[in-house]
Each structure stands twice: as C-alpha cells, then as structure tokens.
Design brief:
The protein is mainly α. 86% of the residues lie in helices and 0% in strands.
Length: 190
C-alpha cells in the first residue's frame, strides 16, 4: 500500500511537471500547491517504507540468531511506548488543554475588543446624529438602524460572555464531574 501511494504521488508530480514543460516557473498557483502537498506526503511515506524494509531485514536477521524470541524485541518496544503513553498521557492532555484555553481566551478578547469598538463607534455615530437639529427622514431611518445595530452588539457581547463562562467552567471541571452533571441534569451547560 505504501509503495503504491509513493508511486501514484510521484506520478502526479511528474505529470504536473511534464504538463508545464518541466519548468517550475510555468506552474500556476494550484499546480504549485499540489506539488507542495505531494512533496510533504512523500516526506511521510518514504521514511515509513524505509523503516518497514529495515524492520523486515532486522527481523529476519534476529530470527536466524534467536529464533522465535526475536518477536520479544518489537513486542517490548511496543510495550515500552505504550507504557510511556499511559504515564504521560494526562500530563500531555493537560498541557494541550492549557494551550487551547489560552488560544480561545485570546480569540475571545480580540472579538470582544472588536465588538466593543464597533459598539462605541455606533454610539458616537448615534449621538452625533441625535444632536443635529436638521434630521431628514433618511437620517431618521439610519438612526433607527444604528439603534438596532447597537442593541444587536450588546446582545452579541452578552452571549460571548456567557460562552466564555461556559468554556471556563468546562475547562476547570474534571471530566468525571462534568459527565456526572450531564447525566443528572440531562443537558449541557455550554
């Protein structure tokens, strides 16, 4: 399967280069992107095939030396990796969850700042147009639209605060307690 994938990927890259006269400068953006993706795919597939071949040669050699006990080497390596995963899984999970929480908080702050700036702009626009004495019907309609937009922004900000509180509650609640809360209440907090 891996050799087939490598062959089809190389064939696709070759076809793109032949279609463009073997010149990278003639390739359009799509062709360049396809060649880049295929090259990265080859960077995964080629070492995987190489390791497979080296493993089969090493396994055959070890079989000639220690017979059936040669299987103990890959089995113990797999067991060791599984044990390491089991021991460090929770720490890694907590670390990744912390990174994701920080990213979400940063995104929320950016969105909140943008919405608050837009809301302030609408308030100043509304205040400027309310104070002018000569308001036409069109400006009156615009004023109503501004008021509706301002109310919409207030509603969005309030919903964002609720979502942020829900995410913080979810991130700080142990998984077992959260699952138990879902079973008891029958609904999600978020």
């Amino acid at each position: 399967g891996t050799a087939t994938d490598i062959g089809s990927t190389l064939g696709r890259i070759t076809m793109i280069f032949l279609r463009n006269g073997c010149r990278r400068s003639r390739m359009n953006i799509v062709d360049t992107a396809e060649v880049g993706v295929d090259a990265r795919k080859l960077l995964v597939l080629a070492p995987m095939l190489l390791c497979f071949l080296l493993g089969t040669v090493a396994g055959a050699y070890l079989f000639t030396l220690i017979d059936v006990f040669a299987l103990l080497i890959p089995a113990s390596l797999t067991g060791f990796v599984g044990l390491c995963y089991m021991l460090f899984r929770q720490r890694l999970k907590g670390y990744l969850q912390h990174i994701e929480t920080e990213r979400l908080n940063k995104d929320f702050e950016n969105i909140r700042g943008t919405l608050e700036r837009a809301q302030m702009f609408l308030r100043s626009f509304n205040a400027t147009h309310r104070t002018s004495k000569d308001c036409s019907d069109k400006e009156g309609e615009n004023g109503q639209v501004v008021i509706e937009l301002e109310e919409g922004f207030e509603d969005m900000l309030e919903r964002m605060r609720d979502i942020e509180e829900g995410i913080e509650h979810f991130c700080h609640t142990p998984r077992s307690a959260f699952s138990q809360h879902e079973r008891v209440s029958g609904q999600h907090d978020i």
